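Z., the sequence and structure:
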Amino acid sequence: MSTPLQVEIAAAAARWVVEEGLEYGPAKSRAARELGAARRSAWPDNSLVEQAVRDYIAVFCPDSQAQELAALRALASQWMERLAAFRPHLTGAVWHGTATRWSDIYLQLFCDDPKSAELALIDQGVRFQPSAVNGFQGEAVDALSLSCHCPGLGESVGIHLMIHDHGDLRGALQPDRQGRRPRGDLKALRALMDPQISVKHETL
């Protein structure tokens, strides 16, 4: 059960996530410093922060956030079409429905050859910055970061491609601790973008 301090930190962190686009970790750290909660053990978990983010959006920016989310999902779908050969799956705030104009797009690619996606971007003349991030089991995986103009927002958005082995795809589709799908393919994303889809699907 969450403590009052954890709830307070989560609420403060949510403001930084929504208004400045901070990731949950830095947002919690900043909120904890503001509230004098130095011990990391006092911090809320990500699920509590995510709920606080949803609450903040519902109160302060429901209409503008919905428009921004739609623009980011439209851009994500374009890149998923472009990278269809690499089995792209959308994850993060754009998938879960909490993204704002400050949010980046995170796509996970499942490749037979880990260098194939990188070579495809080079062939298409796409400039990117390579790095390494933690994979599903904490192992290092390649990441390719780029910037792309988002027509719906009228500004550039960061897009991050995480490169996983094809064999990781089956395990990656397992529900998370909240029983939600942590990522989705293009078909699943298009279902979320369909205005006839029930709002409950935003919690997938």
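Residues 197-204 have pLDDT under 50 and may be disordered. The first helix runs from residue 4 to 20.

Let me know what you think.
H.
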